[in-house]
Amino acid sequence: MSTIILIFIIFLGGAILTFLASALKGILKEVLFLASVFVPVVLFFTNISIGQTFSFQAAGFAFQWGITPLSYVFALIVAGLGLMAAIYAVSAMRNKENTGFFYFNYILTIMSMLGILFSRDLVSFFIFWEIMTWSSYLMVVYQGKDVQTVGIKYFIFSAVGAYAMLMAIVVVYSLTGSMMIDSLVQSFPGFSFDMQLLIPILLLIGFGVKSAMMPLHVWAPGAYSHAPMAYSSIFSGALSKMGIYGMVIVMVSLISHIPEGHWFREVIAWLGGITAVMGTLWAIKQDDAKKLLAYSSIGQLGYIIVGVGIGTPLAMMSGLFLAVMHALFKGTLFMVVGAIERQTGTSNLTEVTGLIRKMPWTFLASLFSIIALAGIPPLGGFIGKWMLYESLIVSDHYLLVIVIFFSSTAAFLYCYKFLFGFFLGQEETEWSHVKEAPAMMVVPMLILAVSTFVLGVFPGLILNPINEAMQTLGYANTQGHLWEMSVIFNEWGNQVAMQPIVYTIIGIFLFFLTFLTIKGYKETRYVTTKDISSSGEVPKEHENLTFSMNFMQPFFRAVEPLMRRQIDKYYNGFANGMEALFDFTRRIYTGNGQTYAMYVVIFVVLLLLLKTPFSDN
Amino acid sequence: MESIWYKILGAIITVIVAFIVGLTYMGLSRKITARIQNRKGPPFYQNFIDALKLASKTSAIHHGFMQHVGPAFMMITSIMSVLVVPILTGDQWFSNLNFKGDLIFLLYIMVFGPLGMALGAGQTGNPNSAIGVTRGLSQMVGFEIPWVMALVALMMQYKTTSIVDLINIQQEQGVWLMFSSPFAFIAAVLAMLGMFRYSPFDIVGAPTELASGPVSENGGKYLFTLMSSNSIFAFAKLTLYVDLFLGGASNIVELLIKTFAIYLIPMLYGTVSPRYRTEQAIKYFWGWPLFFGFLALLYAAIF
Amino acid sequence: MVGSPVLLIAIPLLAAFVIPLIGMIWKELVRIIPGLVLAYMLILSATLLYYVSYNGTIVETIAGWQAPWGINLDFSPLTGFLATLMSALGFLVWLFSYRFKRNVDFEPAKKYFIFLMLLIAGAIGIVITGDIFNQFVFIEITGISAYALTAFYTGRNSAEASFKYLMMGAMASSFLLVAIAILYSQLGTLNMADIASKMHTMNPTYKIIALIFFITGIGIEAEIFPLNGWAPDAYTEAPGPVGAAFAGIVVKAGVYAIIRMIFTLFDVPGAYDFLIAIGLITLIVAETSALRQEKLKRMLAYSSIGQMGLVIVAFGIGTHEGVFAALFLMLNHAVIKPLLFFSGSSLVFNSKKKQIAEMNGLGKRMPLMAAFFSLGAFAIVGLPPFAGFWSKLSVLSAAANEGLLLIIVLILIVSVIEIVYYFRVVNRIFFQEYSKEQSVVPHRPRINAMVAMFVLAIAILIIGFYPDAVTGILHNAAKDLMNTDQYINNVLQLGQSLTR
Q: What ipTM goes with this model?
């Protein structure tokens, strides 16, 4: 039996077995859960080679599964983050209700994401896409909060996206007679102009929804923040990347072959830019860390969309690299919030303060991830950001680069808000009981956080597979010309060499750390956060000095006009209008037999009157 | 191995020079401000005395690890920027990391320290510090935009993102960029007002209101490190302006003259201005500086 | 050969009359006999279907009168498929309602099973008969038993619903009779194959009028839009399993009759476009109405109407793929909708008002029922890997092959609405808190009902994961419907090609 099919059978069987085992006491379900994530992933890394395929026929369609260099990059994200989040989830979901249900959907999501990446034909792509949609939907409503608003909104947007994609798929099938992605790519340049426009637009709607692109993003804040954090970590980290994956295929393999492709790229890139700005601004405004991260995810995905949209070699590289990085740091951050919520019972930034001494490892993980998120050297986020800026500058996108820069500068605000809100500030007695999260939660976070550092110093580790993926997409080899193991170049030949920089930074840091620590170390003693200079007054133990309300108020006074219009309101208005309209159609069925009889008569009369179109010739 | 020690020695010399020059400039600025306000003012070497005093003191307390290492983070930024910015053109001793990082890298490494510092300030638990930090970050979003616009304009116009290349271009053409890209220069200078945090943009530290804001819980060696870091950073920024717009400097005297000339701008503007509130500051930066930034981009796009 | 197709009609009719007599011997037999009959019918029709798919259509003449003059039964891949489907569903409905009113009262149960048998006999008769008047008779049989089943609970609302149904049914009958009269006066025959072969000789005006009357008459049974006013009430008031039988059996027969008219009997050029138009209107009106319903069964009723609209659209596409897709949809609908009706009626079993709002938190109290309902909801909105997905895909790809992009868009928009109202219910069941004051008291269904639902659920999964299990049969059936000449030849045994 082919390993490919074996992987999916293990996933599916594992999901069902785990679900069944959840009725039993003991750790059987956890073991099964971990096994059914680990085993296929290990099989994937050991037994699957690029280009190996598996084909079969069903329902009159040809199916083909196999991995390409491009999907391999994304499979790295899914498999890596999936594993880490699985370990985390076992500990995080312990003692929760319905863990079997959680594990079931978790495994299905991982399976469907790998399935999407394996699919070489559109039908199985769509099937896995939909499985991913509903399994993630079940996770969004899992905690039972706002299910009728947030959950339904997520599903409506997903359905609209998926159905747009489905329409594109059947249209492609009617035009080419084949469901293979390759045959779509080959015959696309020969399509009529209408189809060349229609198909990418429909596909991009589908992918845009999942990657939370403006104006299709409104589901994301609620969905990301309502799912359990162990799941949000792959939801935002990996699942949204499926949209990016599809977008890469559309932007590169389809759109670059049509004469109007240039405009497409501009529009998508600008949508990405606006997404980045709006996501960032709204993220700053949030007081709930989950919401903050959700909006931040939207913003970060905006950068990735910009990179993919611009589509020059450097931009594409940056898009894919940022996709990997975003998976790492956003995955970690959602885990951090989950850990904090588990230990303190809330994820509200205005309530929790001063956890740094209670949860130092969690703090370390989030510090790394935040630095990576903010794009500050020497962590990996910087590499992606740098390549993005350079590609925009080199390709003459004057305004877009400013927009992106604005957004990533503003991102510092919520980065600081996140760290300050949770870990810094006054250590209130309310939280003095808080302990560090269990090791099974902390270790995955730290592994992911450290890998952002490793990728920052040696971006070539991940740029190598990205380079191979891009070569199969038709780009030239960029190794040595745009990147080396730890050096990145722009297309004008300017470079950033990470190794000397990192060594210098470490050197300076160690020097001053020693300087600050060594002399008089014994004299320096730790004092509590109540012992501060406050004009001579000494704050009492229970006096709350925490500053966390209206945290970035001055900033909002300045950017208020930008945030006055919310696209969400328009959607809600539309939905309400529709409901009212449908309430009206409901009244067609009056419940009165006479009316119904009259309908029959009217029907007959109308048909008799209109019979002319029926009469033969 | 020879070259690495050579480089490290060069770097140390650079940092020391930057430290001395920065402190001197600060002292001079205190003197000049005093003179404008019709006071006598402290001697220009007062800052050296202050630094020495702080360095020799032992700190009695700290508020935790982040606060402990905050000044070290700040130092990373200052020293990294001074190493990446070319100090003297064509000089082996001061080449440091000039070719290892470009403008975008510089922009980002410049926020590394303030953020680390902000984390340290956050851990002290002093509300004033946190308030100062939020103001500082907000203001940063304000002035970064025109500043980046100016830089992007330069990068696009001359098709390079390397500072060294920009200096070379100025020397080849014989025209300073402040004349060949005037709008970018204006936008950059206006942004610089915010970058130096002199009045009217000193609400971050606001000595009378916030008790110096972010630095308020630091004393002794912490404060010394912060102070020296500030002076090094100031020197780095001034040198960057000189490199970008005034054609760089080929010897130390030229460098001093040019940097001091640039330094006078925010200092003098500050002495005659009252203080802006944060949102006023942001709106200020998104007014004329932004307009000049757009002009600069337009100029770069056309030429 | 296990038996001939005529048994499919004769045996349930016979059973319906024998049941009260047998009931006098042993009351339990009233429940057992229908099951045995339906099981036999299922085996018979399945065997016959297997036979005809290799050996060609069976044409059974009744009482020795040859085709144009006598009544004949036509058991082709298409009609056989539908007959098998109906017997299978009938069996499941019986299984679900085996203990119906068992400990309460004997009389209602007797009536229930009698009318159920009549209903199934009538529906199968509509499908396999080859005579148009005979078909009318079967429509009447089906109708009458359906009215009776609607009024089963003998409440005020049931009576009203039944009366509406009856009134509409009466109108349907009159239209049908007029149409048949027109046909007979013009062509002098009542045999469908004969009519089909002579149709080109008919005066176009008469032809149109006859067709319109036919469509109106049968459209009432097939729940076409302005004619389906009875349906929501009837579904709501009838017992749960009857709703399933309506959705799975009666409506299918009605749709079959319309399709037979348009595909085989009448060669009216615009009819296919008419099907698409009327199907779309039905689909849109029904699904939008379903969105704001408060009662569960009523919502399911509208959803059922909408699905039938979609089936009609798919038939209206008129190509082999279209017909295949329509049959696939019918199959899926026949599998999924009964599951929804069964599990839904179990969920709200103890409720007086049967409202959706009362279903909060039932997922924890009745996990299996809730899971079945959710499975049905997932399947019917077309989420892979469940059954509904494949039919939706085939409808869309059939439409795309004909370039009907607007139809695709409309179908997909409606699907989104469908998703909304189904998932609102699923959300309530699973993810909202159970409250003692507002929610329904849980009811534990009997093992037989469980088995019935389990069979349907398994069927959904099998079709979902392995659609090829049914596509062969469906392709045969679709081929059969498309080939009018074959049909006429089979019945009349003319042995020559007829051109319309």
A: 0.91
